[in-house]
Amino acid sequence: MSNTPIFKNFGIGSAAQPLTDPSVSPEGTRQPQPLSDEERERNQQLVDTYAEQLYDASAQEILEWAHEHVEGKLVVTLSMENTVLAELASRYLPDSDFLFLDTGYHFPETLETADKVEARYEQKLVRAKPKLTTGEQDLRYGLNLYSTDPTACCRMRKVEPLAEYMEPYTGWITGLRRDDSPLRANTPALDIDKNGRLKISPIVSWTLEDTNRFIEDHDLIVHPLTLQGYPSIGCAPCTAKVEAGADPRSGRWANFNKTECGLHTS
């Protein structure tokens, strides 16, 4: 798409500001770094050999398998909606790092939860930040891009930072669950992403009830908004409360035809 600036007037008497097309990422954005052919082949062999037997395995079995079979370093992606993965990784994958996508749009409670995770667990917490601050993004792409083009906003503040910060790792641990949404109903516990990295989802067979029970049983750090009607938490501008009994993810991008940020679909 063209890099020709778009001109928009933000108010009476204000000067027209040249805006960049949202499909054009900020300068310095790096393309995802694929693994070497040797690493990709090794990871693919693991998926081909073990994906079926791990499909319905327990979280402990999946993480112990990863600790035993995966060469190279793994990273645990944490949204801070809950801290289940941090607890599991601290027990069964102690050599892993934690990674948090610090988008600039999080609820204060999400940032406080991240600070508590960093204090409680020994693993290094990597805070992946976008190229632009929220203010810089407003100036370049227009005020509140999340309200006009949420897919572009997610790309620049989640998908692209994850790709860049993923470079040192041979695979990542996700909190995907099959009962999250119909799109995730057949999610494997062990997969490979388009850059050759392993994608391991140890709680993929859990329900929301299983997750909450584990949090309570093990006295985990609790994101306070999960107790206030927010069962699925993303960036503050794009997350709404959910009525009791409704789809837990219905509060995400509630006014848009959008159910995924792109981390697991791009």
UniProtKB/TrEMBL annotation:
<comment type="similarity">
    <text>Belongs to the PAPS reductase family. CysH subfamily.</text>
</comment>
<protein>
    <recommendedName>
        <fullName>Adenosine 5'-phosphosulfate reductase</fullName>
        <ecNumber>1.8.4.10</ecNumber>
    </recommendedName>
</protein>
<keyword id="KW-0411">Iron-sulfur</keyword>
<dbReference type="InterPro" id="IPR014729">
    <property type="entry name" value="Rossmann-like_a/b/a_fold"/>
</dbReference>
<dbReference type="GO" id="GO:0004604">
    <property type="term" value="F:phosphoadenylyl-sulfate reductase (thioredoxin) activity"/>
</dbReference>
<keyword id="KW-0963">Cytoplasm</keyword>
<feature type="region of interest" description="Disordered">
    <location>
        <begin position="11"/>
        <end position="42"/>
    </location>
</feature>
<dbReference type="GO" id="GO:0019379">
    <property type="term" value="P:sulfate assimilation, phosphoadenylyl sulfate reduction by phosphoadenylyl-sulfate reductase (thioredoxin)"/>
</dbReference>
<dbReference type="GO" id="GO:0005737">
    <property type="term" value="C:cytoplasm"/>
</dbReference>
<comment type="function">
    <text>Catalyzes the formation of sulfite from adenosine 5'-phosphosulfate (APS) using thioredoxin as an electron donor.</text>
</comment>
<keyword id="KW-0408">Iron</keyword>
<feature type="domain" description="Phosphoadenosine phosphosulphate reductase">
    <location>
        <begin position="75"/>
        <end position="240"/>
    </location>
</feature>
<dbReference type="GO" id="GO:0051539">
    <property type="term" value="F:4 iron, 4 sulfur cluster binding"/>
</dbReference>
<dbReference type="GO" id="GO:0046872">
    <property type="term" value="F:metal ion binding"/>
</dbReference>
<feature type="binding site">
    <location>
        <position position="153"/>
    </location>
    <ligand>
        <name>[4Fe-4S] cluster</name>
    </ligand>
</feature>
<dbReference type="GO" id="GO:0070814">
    <property type="term" value="P:hydrogen sulfide biosynthetic process"/>
</dbReference>
<feature type="binding site">
    <location>
        <position position="235"/>
    </location>
    <ligand>
        <name>[4Fe-4S] cluster</name>
    </ligand>
</feature>
<dbReference type="Pfam" id="PF01507">
    <property type="entry name" value="PAPS_reduct"/>
</dbReference>
<comment type="pathway">
    <text>Sulfur metabolism; hydrogen sulfide biosynthesis; sulfite from sulfate.</text>
</comment>
<feature type="active site" description="Nucleophile; cysteine thiosulfonate intermediate">
    <location>
        <position position="261"/>
    </location>
</feature>
<feature type="binding site">
    <location>
        <position position="154"/>
    </location>
    <ligand>
        <name>[4Fe-4S] cluster</name>
    </ligand>
</feature>
<feature type="compositionally biased region" description="Polar residues">
    <location>
        <begin position="20"/>
        <end position="34"/>
    </location>
</feature>
<feature type="binding site">
    <location>
        <position position="238"/>
    </location>
    <ligand>
        <name>[4Fe-4S] cluster</name>
    </ligand>
</feature>
<keyword id="KW-0560">Oxidoreductase</keyword>
<dbReference type="InterPro" id="IPR004511">
    <property type="entry name" value="PAPS/APS_Rdtase"/>
</dbReference>
<keyword id="KW-0479">Metal-binding</keyword>
<dbReference type="InterPro" id="IPR002500">
    <property type="entry name" value="PAPS_reduct_dom"/>
</dbReference>
<dbReference type="GO" id="GO:0043866">
    <property type="term" value="F:adenylyl-sulfate reductase (thioredoxin) activity"/>
</dbReference>
